[in-house]
Amino acid sequence: MRRQKQLICGVLAMSCILCSCGILPTEEEFDAAPVVKEYEGDNYSKYTLVRGDMVKKESVDASFQGTTKAETKGEGMGVRIKEICVKKGQKVSEGDVLVKNYVAEQENMVKNSKRQIENLELQMKQARTMRQAELEKLKKLGGTKEQKENIKAQYDSQIKNCESTLKLVRLDLEEAQSEIEDNYVLSDISGTVMTVNSSFEGGYATEEDVLVTVVGKKRNRFRAKTEYASHFRDGQEVTITVIGQQYKVTAKKSDEKNKIYFYPKTELPVKNGVVGSIDLILKEKKNVLYLPAALVYDMGDKKIVYVEGENGIKTIREVTIGERMGNMLEITNGLKENEQIITN
Are 279 and 286 within 8 A, CB to CB? Predict the structure, then answer.
C-alpha cells in the first residue's frame, strides 16, 4: 500500500515538471486583427463644398444680317443664257426673275404645242361653222330629222376628238413651260440691281462670271429665332460672342413669334450670315452652397452625401436640398462650407 502511494506521487510530480518545462502542448494563440480604415486618405477623391452663385442659363444663336449682297453667276458651259431680264438701278423683290436660261428641247416643245393648239382651235371653229351651215341647208331642202341627227353626230364627233387632243397638248405645254421656268434664275434678296453684264446673252457663262449683282438694305443686326425670345426685354443690353470676339448689342423684339433682333452700337466687321451666341441668364441665386447633382444620392425618402468621418471612414450625411439649376443642387441644410464630399 505504501509502495502504491509512492508511485502515484511520483507520476504527479513528473507531470508538474513536464508542464513547467513546456513540453506538453498548449492552446495556440493569435495576434488581434488590425483595424482597417476603409477609404482612408488618398483612396478616394473629394469635392470641396464652397459658397457661390447658382446660374441657370441658355445659349441663344443669332445670325448676322449686314448689307446683303447677292451675285448671280453662270452655271458652267452646259447652260446657254437666253436673256438677262433686269437693268442697272432697277428695284427688284425676292423671287423676281433676273436671268432666263435657254432650254432647247422645252423651247421647241412650247412652240410646237402652241402651233398645235392654234390648229386644233381653228379646226373646232370650222367644224362648228360647217355643222351650222349643213343644218341650215338641210332645213331649206326639207331634210328629215334623221338626216339632221346624222350631220350633228358627224361634226360633234370631230369636235370631241379635237377637244380631247387639245387637252393633251395643253398639258404638254404646261409641263414644258414649267421646266423652262425651273431654269429661271431668281433674286435671293430684295434690293437694287448694281451691275448687269448683258454681253453673255445668247452665249455661255462660267461659274465665276457675274451676270447680275443685287445689293439689299444695310441692316447691321443679328437675328435670332428662339423659344427664349420672350425672356429678353426691349432695350436690354447683352453680349454676343462671334468667332471669339465679344460685342455689346441691344435687344429689340419683333412682332413675329419667337423672333428677336440685336443691334450693335457701331457697324461690325462681320460677314453676312455669320452666327454668334448670347448667354441668356434664366435664373440666378447668389451666395448659396451647392453641389453637383451627381454627388447627392437617394436613400428612401432622404437625400444623402458621403463625407469623410473619424479615422478616414466613409460615412453618410443626410442633407436638405433646395433648387436645381442645370447640373447643380442647392444645399440648404446638412453641410457646411469647405466640407469634403466624397466623389467615388
Answer: no
Of the candidates 82, 81, 86, 80, the one whose C-alpha atom is nearest the C-alpha of residue 98 is 86
| Residue at grid coordinates 377637244 | 163
pTM check: above 0.70: no
If DSSP codes are grouped into helix, strand and coil, which group holds residue 85?
A: coil
> Considering Cα of 294, then 298, then 301, then 302, what sign does the dihedral take?
negative
Q: What is the pLDDT of residues 229-270, one digit of tens each?
A: 999 999 999 999 999 999 999 999 998 889 999 999 998 988
- Count CB-CB contacts under 10 A for residue 173: 18
Do 48 and 338 form a contact (C-beta atoms < 8 A)? Answer: yes
pLDDT digits (tens, 9 = 90+) for 142-199: 888 899 999 999 999 999 999 999 999 999 999 999 998 888 999 988 999 999 999 9
**Distance separating alpha carbons of residues 302 and 37, to the nearest angstrom:** 27
Residue 96 CA, distance from chain mean position: 29
Contact 189, 214 (CB under 8 A): yes
Characterise 202 by phi-psi region: left (phi > 0), alpha (psi -120 to 50), beta (else).
left
Task: Give the pairing of strands 210-225 and 245-253.
Answer: unpaired
Q: What is the pLDDT of residues 61-95, one digit of tens each?
A: 999 988 888 899 988 766 889 999 999 999 999 89
Amino acid (1-letter code) at residue 323? E
**Inter-residue contact 262 to 248 (CB < 8 Å):** no
